[in-house]
Amino acid sequence: MSSRFNKWLRLRIILVGVFLGLLLLTVTGRFIQLQLFEGPRLRAQAQREYRKLCPVLSIRGSILDRQGTELAVSTFVQSLGAHPNRLPDTNNLSTQLANRLNLSRSQIQKILSKNRSFVWIKRHLTPQQAEAIQAFKEEQLNKAKTCASSPKDNGNPKKSLEAMYLIPEARRFYPHRSLAGPVLGFCNIDGQGLEGLEAQFDQHLYGKPLKCMNLLDARGHIIISSEKELAHQTMGDNLILTIDRTIQYIAEKALANGVEQWHAAGGLAVVVRPQTGEVLAMAQSPTFDPNNFNQYSKEQYQNRALTIAFEPGSTFKIFTVAAALDAGVVRPADQFHCGYAFPGKVVGYIGL
Q1: Helix (H, G, I), strand (E, B) or coil at 88
Q2: Can you give the residue range of the structural domain that contains 345?
Q3: Cα separation, 101 vs 123, whole angstroms
């Protein structure tokens, strides 16, 4: 009895030993496979999951007058974007967003029905609209907690919450509204200069686009970001003008009063420092507000002092006089009567 029991005990020990040995060999083989053969591929796949290259918000440089007063600046606003293919119920979402964004339900539904991986629902929200969207997302999050017991439910609000989010953007703003509007020009919704100085110096004002490396957790939330380190590199250059804001305001005011007084179709005024040729003011009437440039026609926002050709007229007399003085055929004190008339009526008079 005792010998039979001992044999059975030894057999069990041998079986356990063989099993543990095979298990050790299996684990060792799997370890070698993962580390040596599949290691580079798996490491690259893991890095793609928790390391993401994200664009850094580019900030357009400011435009300043000769005293350093800001004439054009960039401000931060929120825009609403979404992944349509990840939204479970676009009909209900369109209804919820319509009142908060001052858009019609059909407009939002048309945007969310596009066959794209990402769409803009609305760009450059007002602070009130951004707050309304944030409150709506918090409301959706609270609803998602009540749906946690049924994660397979396609109507789970959490899915809408994750597929729709606010994105910070830079918007061009002109604090003095129409002051020097035709000179400054304006930018489109993506911050690219289209008219005036904004277009002429676009490559200098527009910040350098870069991408930062973000480390994400298992839920896709950013835990470490290098965006702040690159922020100063994405800033565009500032542009300092010879224009003086005060002189520009006076010139525009006087020009507008003159146009109104004489019922003119428009007017132009340029104030220049004779000693250096610096342009201190460049005004035109009517003018426009670059903050709302899409409400004006092209003729209104063009800088007519630069785009319209003028006949030399009386301004060319100085060259004629200079040539005569240089040739020595006249003296500075000489006077000439240059009037011309039809019988009984003087038409014009030119004095030199």
Answers
A1: coil
A2: 311-352
A3: 10
Euclidean distance between CA atoms 8 and 18, whole angstroms: 15
Please list, in sequence order, all residues whose beta carbon lies within 8 angstroms of the beta carbon of residue 21, skipping any fewer than 6 positions away.
none
Q: 114-129, pLDDT tens digit by residue? A: 888 888 999 999 999 9
d(CA 161, CA 87): 9
Q: Which of 239, 266, 284 lies at the terminal end of a domain, its last residue?
A: 239
Give domain status of residue 83, yes or no: yes
Among all chains, which residue has been given the structure tokens 């769409």? 119
Put simply, whether the predicted model's pTM sits higher than 0.70 gets the answer: no
Torsion sign, CA atoms 118, 121, 124, 125: negative
d(CA 73, CA 63): 7
pLDDT at 137 over 50: yes
Nearest to 1 by CA among 14, 9, 15: 9
Where among 202, 219, 239 does a domain terminate? 239
SS3 118: coil
> Nearest-CA neighbor of 257 among 248, 247, 267?
267
Unique residue bearing structure tokens 């003296």:
331
Whether residue 34 lies inside any domain: the answer is no
Report the share of the chain in percent with pLDDT over 90.
29
Q: What is the pLDDT of residue 147?
A: 60
Which tens digit of pLDDT belongs to each residue from 290-335? Answer: 999 988 888 888 899 888 877 766 677 788 888 999 999 988 888 8
CA dist., res. 185 & res. 196, Å (int): 4
**Among residues 296, 285, 280, 289, which one has the least CA distance to residue 257?**
285
Q: Are residues 82 and 228 in the same domain?
A: yes
Residues 149 and 58 in one domain: yes
CATH number of the domain encompassing residue 190:
3.90.1310.10
Query: What residue spans of 67-205 are helical by DSSP H?
Result: 90-101, 105-112, 127-146, 157-163, 181-184, 196-200, 202-205
Same structural domain, 205 and 92: yes
Look at residue 338 and give its three-state secondary structure: coil
Give the Cα separation of 126 and 173 in Å (integer). 13
User: Residue 135 half-sphere exposure, CB side, CA atoms within 13 Å?
Assistant: 10
